[in-house]
Amino acid sequence: MKNPLLIRETFPVGPLQCNCSIIGDPVSKKAIVVDPGGNAEEIFNRTQLLGLNIIALICTHAHFDHFLAAGKLHDKTDAPVYLHKDDRLLWDALEMQCQIFNVPFQPVPAPHHWLQDDQLLPCCNGITMHTPGHSPGSVSFWFEEAKLLIAGDTLFRGSIGRTDLWGGNYRQIEKSIRERFYTLDDDVLVVPGHGSLTTIGCEKTTNMVIRA
Predict the structure, then answer these.
(1) What is the rounded CA–CA span in Å between residue 135 and residue 153?
(2) Which of 11, 18, 19, 91 stands the most exposed, by the fewest C-beta atoms within 10 Å?
(3) Which residues pair with 102 in a beta bridge?
(4) 92 φ, ψ (degrees, to nearest 5)
(5) How far is CA 179 from CA 20, 128, 157, in A?
């Protein structure tokens, strides 16, 4: 999908069909890849078809299904990997996570940059939101001008991210959704970590787990 402010293409990748998003600047042609969870060649080829150059690989959190293509994409583009530091323990256990879910481990470099709350992303005027709950270092990305929220596994259409996995906390995820997401305008488009897109207004009124 394109709009005058940015280029966005979202598609499922990897064994758990994580939503990977290519976010690009139509002027500079710089792009970030959010949650490269698999299918490295497909991600790279799509950026090429869009005429974009990958400058950063950004993970919303450090569960294995959101990183699997990061190593190959880094090798191909030299783009650095970004993650919130509170997920460092999960990142260090990526190989173990893959073993538990019987998924082949694909080596990935240690994060090159640690994300912080309200940090400006490398392009497209996106802002990092620290939205813990699904994991301690879960982050989301807010593109105010485009009214676009990349929510990771914090908020899904009609549901929320699991809190029974490593580092999950229901009270934290509820606070993240109520204080960071539900204060945004109703027409904000939400790209969740898995499944269909939604809007803030839809979730505030119909989400059966956390309503406004």
Answers:
(1) 9
(2) 11
(3) none
(4) -65, -20
(5) 25, 15, 18
Q: How far apart are CA 23 and CA 28, in angstroms?
A: 12
Q: Is 163 helix (H, G, I), strand (E, B) or coil?
A: coil
Cα separation, 142 vs 181, in Å, equals 10
Q: In one letter, which amino acid is 94?
A: L
3-state secondary structure of 198: strand
Residue 116, amino acid: Q
List, in order, residues 6 or more apart from 55 with CB less than 8 Å away. Answer: 30, 31, 32, 79, 122, 123
Q: Are 37 and 51 in contact (CB under 8 A)?
A: no
Query: What type of residue sits at position 211?
Result: R
pLDDT tens digits for 123-181?
A: 999 999 999 999 999 999 999 999 999 999 999 999 999 999 888 999 999 999 999 99
Mean pLDDT over 3-17 rounds to 90
Burial class of residue 34 (count of CB atoms within 10 Å of its CB; 0-12, 13-18, 19+): buried
Nearest alpha carbon to residue 59 among 39, 81, 40, 43? 81
**C-alpha distances in Å from residue 147, one per residue of 32, 42, 78, 137:** 17, 27, 30, 23
Calpha distance 149→61 (Å, rounded): 15
Give me the residue label for tokens 């966005």: 8
The token pair at 100 is 């538990």
Separation CA 56–CA 204 (nearest Å):
32
